[in-house]
Write a structure and sequence with these properties.
single chain
């Protein structure tokens, strides 16, 4: 009996990975996959929200207290500003508001997209790794900008023999950041695929109660937490590179 259920479950598994369009470029075969579709959906939501928010702000009366949608915008802006000031200080924090706010909003929408039946784009390493590379480039840029030759000197501290270790530490930053986000989000997608694969051979409680509870934890709690962790690490790493200038 158990072997029959296992076989049926395996046949029903769906990891929400589909190839919709195939084309060739520079001799390589490329695919438009579920990740691209979900990323496009998230991008459209962000652009529409930005346009609507911009219009609402332009029409707002500065002499009257905000209300309705403006309150939501003000809450989001204040939350990002407070997070930046608490992590990077009042001098440098506001300078990174655009990047940090965009990064957190993008990650949050990607992680929560599983609630509406999409495959979270962050469960694809091809999404999390480029994000980590962008953050790593900002870390290195600010390190060189504020520390100048001290950035290169730090690779040989406390003694010259630590140079290989320090280089590995620098290179491992985007790898660890991307794998942390990818691992947590992909594991959630994998667990939901296993649960939905068992629904047809399971009980009513498995079909209704467990998916709802797992979505609440894996998509909402873990999704928000991982977006916050990735954003916080970005701010902390950049702030550490600013050094004495902070």
């Amino acid at each position: 009996m158990m072997s029959v259920l296992a076989a049926g479950s395996a046949e029903n598994l769906d990891f929400f990975i589909e190839g919709y369009f195939r084309f060739k470029m520079f001799g390589q075969t490329l695919y438009i996959t579920t990740t691209h579709v979900c990323l496009s959906f998230v991008f459209v939501i962000l652009v529409v929200f930005a346009l609507v928010a911009n219009r609402a702000i332009r029409k707002a009366d500065p002499h009257k207290p905000p209300k309705g949608f403006l309150n939501v915008i003000e809450l989001l802006v204040e939350s990002v500003d407070n997070m930046l000031v608490s992590s990077m200080g009042e001098k440098h924090g506001p300078r990174f508001a655009n990047y940090v706010g965009s990064l957190f909003g993008f990650l949050l929408l990607c992680n929560l997209s599983g609630l509406i039946g999409l495959r979270p784009p962050t469960s694809d390493f091809g999404v999390t790794f480029p994000l980590a590379i962008i953050t790593w480039c900002m870390i290195q840029y600010n390190g060189i900008k504020y520390q100048k030759w001290g950035k290169l000197k730090s690779l040989f501290e406390p003694v010259f023999l630590f140079f290989p270790v320090n280089v590995i530490s620098e290179v491992s930053t985007p790898i660890s950041m991307s794998l942390r986000l990818f691992g947590n989000m992909f594991s959630g997608t994998l667990m939901m695929a296993l649960v939905y694969g068992l629904i047809k051979v399971g009980s009513v409680s498995l079909a209704i109660v467990w998916p709802a509870a797992l979505h609440a934890y894996l998509d909402v709690f873990a999704g928000v937490l991982q977006a916050y962790v990735f954003t916080m690490l970005t701010m902390v790493f950049i702030y550490n590179q600013i050094g004495e200038e902070a």
